[in-house]
């Protein structure tokens, strides 16, 4: 209980620090003016496009799931994504990342550990694809230098965070590959480490570990690896398109390509484990809008808050509707995620 309270206090403090940085020096009169100045047609399109990433992620997931079960329903993967993001929007610690695969496992009769393994693969590719897009953007600098320039400070910040993300993603990828290609050795080491624990507990952990490693099976297929990479591009280019429409809605159109570094920064902010990405996402979004495109602080603040509210609102409405239909509650899902995480 004390451990949970400490984690909650840390997450709350992180959120408050980023919110302070986000709201400082805001002119509230200008903020309200900018917040309500959106083009109504594009604003409606932002709302309609908000669940698009749930659909593209659901489609991509099937490439991994077929190694344990073919014919997993699209409705199930879409629901799992919506429910997972809803839980992460309400509770701290990104517990939705655990709820999402466990929900799908129960719904489709899949191994919980296997589904957890596929989600780890998903997160690795999310980071690698966005880092690759950022790398292409930076390498192509001579092609757009006359139309779009970056200050040395902003360029240095992008390179710094890009390197951090690449190193982290490659480290996790290497660990997963070692687990998969040295499965027998991994299981022997894990069995040795679990000897002091009760037999029932050890057996459960070993079962989950085997299923988790099975979730990495797709690394053996070059064809599926290429397909999954292509679908990951679809996911993230779709997210770039969403933000492209956002800038159109607020009368600050930007070329599609130059929104890549902004989306990368929002990914960095979203990785901070606060409920609903509050604080970290908002600060990095505001930072990107101001430093990359020269938007006024009040406009950047208004655009970020409106867009963030739409994303959380639409996702939670979909998630609540799914849970209501299936007779589940957020508390039940939270317990599911905490139990598996322990």
Quickly describe the structure.
By secondary structure, the chain is mainly α. The chain has one domain. Helix 7 runs antiparallel to helix 13.
Task: Explain what this protein looks like in three dimensions.
The chain contains 16 helices and no strands. It is mainly alpha-helical and 342 residues long. The protein has one domain. The two termini are 13 Å apart.
Radius of gyration: 21 Å
Helical proportion, percent range: over 70%
Dominant shape: globular
Oligomer: single chain
Cα(first) to Cα(last) distance is: 13 Å
The overall strand count is 0
- Which sequence of SSEs, written as H and E, runs from N to C? HHHHHHHHHHHHHHHH
What is the residue-averaged pLDDT?
A: 82
Low-confidence residue ranges: none
What is the count of DSSP helices, taking H or I runs of 4+ residues?
A: 16
The domain count comes to 1
- Structural class computed from helices and strand pairing: mainly alpha
Please outline the helices and strands.
Blueprint: H1 2-23, H2 28-35, H3 40-49, H4 52-65, H5 74-90, H6 96-108, H7 112-139, H8 141-144, H9 152-181, H10 183-193, H11 199-214, H12 222-249, H13 260-270, H14 280-293, H15 297-326, H16 330-341
Helix pairs in contact: 1-14, 2-15, 3-12, 4-5, 4-12, 5-6, 5-15, 6-7, 6-16, 7-9, 7-11, 7-12, 7-13, 9-13, 10-11, 13-14, 14-15
Structure keywords:
342 residues; mainly alpha; 16 helices
